[in-house]
Specification:
single chain, 381 residues, alpha+beta, Butyryl-Coa Dehydrogenase, subunit A, domain 1, Butyryl-CoA Dehydrogenase, subunit A, domain 2, Butyryl-CoA Dehydrogenase, subunit A, domain 3, 8-stranded mixed β-sheet, two-stranded antiparallel ribbon, 11 helices, 10 strands, globular, disordered C terminus
Length: 381
Amino acid sequence: MDFQLTDEQSLLQEGVSRYVADHYGFDTRRAIADRDPAFDETQWRRFAELGWLALTIPETAGGLGLTPLESALVTEPLGSALVLEPYTATAVLAARILAESDARERDAHLGAIAEGRLRIAVAHAEPGARYDIARVTTRAARRANGYRLSGEKQLVLHAPTAQQLIVPAVLEGAPGCGLFLVAGDAPGVERRDYRLLDATPAADVVLRGVALDGAALIVGPERGAAVLEEAIDRLLLAEVAYALGAMERVLEISAEYVKSRVQFGQPLFEFQATQHRLAEMFIEVQEVRSILYCGLAHIEAAPHERRRMVSAAKAVAAQAGRLVGGLGIQLHGGIGMTEEYRVGHYFKHLVVFEKLYGDVDHHLARLMNAGATAPAAGDSP
């Protein structure tokens, strides 16, 4: 894959960077984070008007039909501003699942996402699953005209702002798990909302015999696990790009601070130890960029190769994020962790990023297992 950006791709990323610089500054972000839930409808509509929500949606559904690279080019500057709106959750993860689905209203749903009228959260994590998306205990019992869902999901990111949920569930009498589209306010759907350390809205969801019609099954059990895994891999690369943007901003903020902060009669930047820390941060950021490009180059590869490279990208980015964020705090001293100062908010996000969708140990194990085993038959969505 050629990562020399085209003029159009460069303009796309520059446009997102200008937008967040002008319309999503630190004070704006803090004001949105203080809301319950942390979401701004006006910002979301602007994202739609600018075409960001339509980037990877198929052209047949009113989207632009672009690649995960373009999505990463958007999420990187979004990460530099710590944007709280559910771009990756809806426009990357949910949109990919819908694009691969058999949903009767597939194009209508995708078009609504592109226009900013529909937000969907994916409720895949379950208590005790330990990042294993194949461990599904939620059940879908067949009934006369459809299904009845029962189970529990946890850590459903952006569920408080979503109108619909995509829910994996084991289908009665069939191997594997199907993917169901469920209205967020359907009878029997109970939600406990909370926010993560970085103010991201999330919820635990309990499904108590939720009645669904036959059209709610959007991906059958024979493909459900593969479609979900591939979509999450695309999401992971978008999240790595977001974390990369956050790390770059930590480096910029830290460099600005040590150039202006004076101790012992000279700027902190003049001390060799400070320069070494900034150099270390710079190297980590560049390593993340390289592994992100490697993951993007393999996103369309065979499933075992895709898994290896995506997990490598997540593991490297998670470790780098903890180091870059920690050094940013160290260079600032106590002021770095105050609510009023920017660098601490980036550190909080990087700590959250390290754990979401699999921690370092999980992805190192996935990387090794994917490389040691041949792809199974029917292993691609």
